[in-house]
Design goal:
alpha+beta, eight-stranded antiparallel β-sheet, 27 helices
Length: about 725
């Protein structure tokens, strides 16, 4: 399921690399005997910057590409009016795009929409699992059993939650780039950050705090363009209806990212203002008629992140190293979290852990698919051709060629240098930030302590690090042992059990023994012990937890420091190259996704798969067939109210459908509308064919967005949940726009 809310902390973990931005670390141990790189490749480290670079990355033969390979996630400030009109034979004027923008919403990690003039909001069940759990009262199991507010007064407040509506957009490109360009090149990254923060603060100051206006400066085309997005933020959000988890996530992990699909992934909330339902003229009514194969449809949402403007060298590096390493980490982490869950699955903490595991399984499949896509000769061949066409266009203009082709060449060199440093920059960063649920608290403390011992930090940085060290919360010792074992398996997967580093860490013991010994003997095993230990002179610290990281000697930090410096340079070059893309193509292509509002076009269409043809839509008949065909398998069991269908339920009603719309994580909960801006579906997933390629290229041969059909939602609400009040509101909205 395409959601980014729980993935954000994982990706943010990479920012831990920034912790190592101070002076180069002191050498902790003699690692001169270690090979250049545990994966068997030559490493160019910080100590050897002049070493000739040996190519560690494959190349791909060009495959004919299309301008639309860069995607169809269009921004509202550059609405594709003519393209939509020509492609779908209707007249989308400014008022059409305004209604599309104001009817759509952004919520933390997902998308949503208004579907009635009374503030009724629709999104995916999987986007608000935590909130469905939160509203449960003592003795209730709202996540498993579902929830429905029979009356308006029964709608339940969701604490610490909000929704955003994009109400205005301003172009800031000249304002920001004029200041950036006037600064020396080596200072431009800092100036860019400062001017964005200043402009954002200045624009925010135009509004009274009571107006709840949030201003976000959005970088487009990797910094080639800038827009200010003004969001009205709503805080009073109440739960109206949520189906059971088993039907909102029907088929479980086995069916996730697949099609045909039979999933009622829907939830309804309401926005309140002054303790009354919000009155809004901008909403999407449900269509009277559904969609048919070949119909044009539009997904309006907040796609999280794509890398389609990255160079081929960057995409190749990601597939060979970055994405692969993250995927391995997720695999091992899930094994340990599953084991932790099974220790005591009935506690409140275990129920929250279940949501985390759900999201990580999403991520594991997604990253696994991305690794395959980034190594696929056909897809990468199209990216190669796409880049060749871009370079050819640059060469047609002498000034553009002189400005941007050297940037492409230098970015390629950086990828080779980064490849020589892998996997060390990732080993201690992914999932290792303080209080991360994805790693051992003991190891988190030991990593901070290692930094204190071996890096020359300023007084302020050292004080902050010490405070962070002692603020890491305790975990159950049994959980700690499982998480440490997981980290050891992760290291062995990357480096090999026979690597010098693993031999030093294990010292002849198995992983379970090492984990148990650390929990038993390290001062970092508990917060109380750590606080006492931290009061001693940190330069004299000696502890088994520190020895865990000492085993790597200086290589860990040398490679991490060099990686960070290269990444900083790469980020600056990306920003400059973004201007080159815009100079060549303008608004004929959309910028990469940035978890900001976009509108993506497509058509309802089945596709060839597994030697047959996937239908454009599925029905309730298929859901019941899936249930009975799998007999007692719990993933396809139906909730009690669904097990025996009521006679009034029309089993031929469409339940899910697929379309060629361009979506990615963050689009979960996006409304799918027709040319009249009427709801025909609710996007909740992509099929497995879209899973990996969607971040690097638009490949609509068989890649599809998967949506809940509006007809199936209404049929279920009316005949299974008897949600008459909700059905009336949805149907009455058709006559109120």
């Amino acid at each position: 399921m395409y959601q980014i809310i729980q993935l954000k902390p994982l990706l943010a973990a990479l920012s831990l690399l920034l912790l190592f931005s101070c002076a180069a670390p002191q050498q902790a141990a003699d690692d001169a005997a270690a090979p250049a790189n545990e994966s068997g490749t030559a490493a160019q480290t910080a100590a050897e910057p002049e070493t000739e670079i040996i190519s560690l990355l494959p190349t791909f033969e060009p495959v004919p590409s299309s301008i639309l390979d860069n995607g169809r996630m269009w921004t509202f400030e550059h609405a594709p009016v003519e393209y939509f009109a020509e492609t779908y034979n209707f007249d989308p004027d400014d008022a059409w795009f305004e209604r599309a923008r104001l009817g759509a919403l952004r919520l933390p990690g997902c998308s949503a929409s208004f579907i009635s003039p009374n503030g009724l909001v629709m999104t995916n069940h999987h986007c608000v699992r935590d909130q469905i759990t939160q509203i449960g009262r003592e003795g209730e199991r709202t996540l498993d059993d579902g929830f429905y507010a029979v009356t308006l007064s029964d709608e339940r407040m969701i604490e610490d939650y909000y929704l955003d509506q994009l109400i205005d957009i301003r172009d800031l490109t000249d304002l920001i780039l004029d200041e950036v360009d006037s600064a020396p090149i080596e200072q431009q990254a800092q100036v860019r950050s400062q001017v964005i923060q200043r402009v954002q603060a200045e624009l925010s100051a135009e509004f009274d705090e009571s107006e709840n206006i949030v201003v976000q400066v959005v970088s487009l085309f990797n910094g080639g363009r800038y827009s200010a997005y003004f969001f009205r933020r709503y805080f009073d959000i109440r739960m109206v209806m949520a189906p059971e988890l088993q039907i909102g996530y029907y088929g479980g992990d086995a069916d996730n990212f697949t099609y045909p699909r039979y999933n009622l992934d829907m939830t309804f909330m309401r926005v309140y203002e002054d303790d009354a339902p919000l009155q809004t003229p901008f909403f999407f009514p449900f269509a009277i008629e559904g969609v048919r194969s070949g119909d044009g449809v539009f997904v309006i949402g907040n796609p999280g992140s794509t890398t389609r403007l990255n160079t081929v060298a960057q995409l190749t590096y990601a597939g060979q190293f970055q994405l692969d390493i993250i995927h391995r980490f997720l695999f091992h982490t899930l094994n340990s979290l599953d084991a932790i869950f099974e220790l005591d699955p009935d506690t409140d903490e275990a129920q929250q852990l279940r949501n985390t595991i759900f999201s990580l399984r999403n991520a594991e499949k997604l990253y696994g698919g991305q690794v395959l896509a980034h190594r696929d000769p056909f897809l990468m061949g199209r990216r190669t051709d796409n880049e060749n066409n871009f370079v050819a266009a640059l060469r047609d203009n002498e000034a553009l060629a002189a400005e941007y082709i050297p940037i492409i060449e230098r970015i390629a060199e950086i990828q080779e240098q980064k490849a020589g440093l892998a996997p060390y920059p990732y080993i201690m960063s992914i999932g290792m930030q303080p209080n991360s649920a994805l790693s051992s608290a003991l190891l988190q403390r030991a990593l901070v302590a290692y930094r204190l011992v071996h890096q020359d930090l300023s007084t302020e940085a050292r004080t902050q690090a010490l405070a962070g060290l002692t603020a890491i919360q305790d975990r159950d010792p049994a959980h700690e042992r499982l998480l440490i074992e997981n980290h050891l398996r992760y290291l062995a997967d990357l480096l090999g059990d026979d690597s010098p580093y693993m031999r030093r860490i294990l010292n002849g013991h198995d992983k379970a023994e090492v984990a148990a010994a650390l929990v038993q003997n390290s001062a970092f095993a508990t917060q109380e012990q750590t606080e006492a230990f931290a009061e001693t002179a940190f330069r004299e610290w000696s502890d088994p937890g520190l020895d865990y990281f000492n085993a790597f000697g200086s290589r860990l930090y040398e490679n991490t420091l060099m990686f960070q410096l290269l990444s900083q340079e790469e980020n600056q070059l990306e920003t400059r190259l973004g201007r080159g893309w815009f100079a060549v193509y303008g608004t004929s292509i959309p910028p990469d996704a940035t978890f900001s509002p976009r509108i993506a076009d497509g058509v309802v269409a089945g596709y060839e798969y597994n030697g047959t043809i996937a239908p454009a839509y599925t029905t309730f008949y298929g859901m019941y067939d899936r249930h009975h065909s799998h007999n007692t398998d719990p993933q396809w069991a139906l909730p009690e109210r669904w097990a025996t269908p009521t006679p009034s339920l029309d089993l031929s009603t469409p339940l899910n459908f697929v379309s060629t719309n361009d979506i990615i994580g963050g689009n979960s909960g996006s409304p799918v509308v027709n040319t009249r801006l009427e709801i025909v579906g609710l996007a909740f997933d992509g099929n497995v064919e879209s899973m990996g390629s969607s971040t690097l290229i638009l490949d609509d041969r068989s890649a599809r967005a998967v949506s809940v059909d509006s007809r199936g939602m209404l049929e279920a609400l009316r005949h299974v949940y008897r949600a008459d009040r909700l059905v009336r509101e949805i149907e009455d909205a058709r006559h109120q726009r």
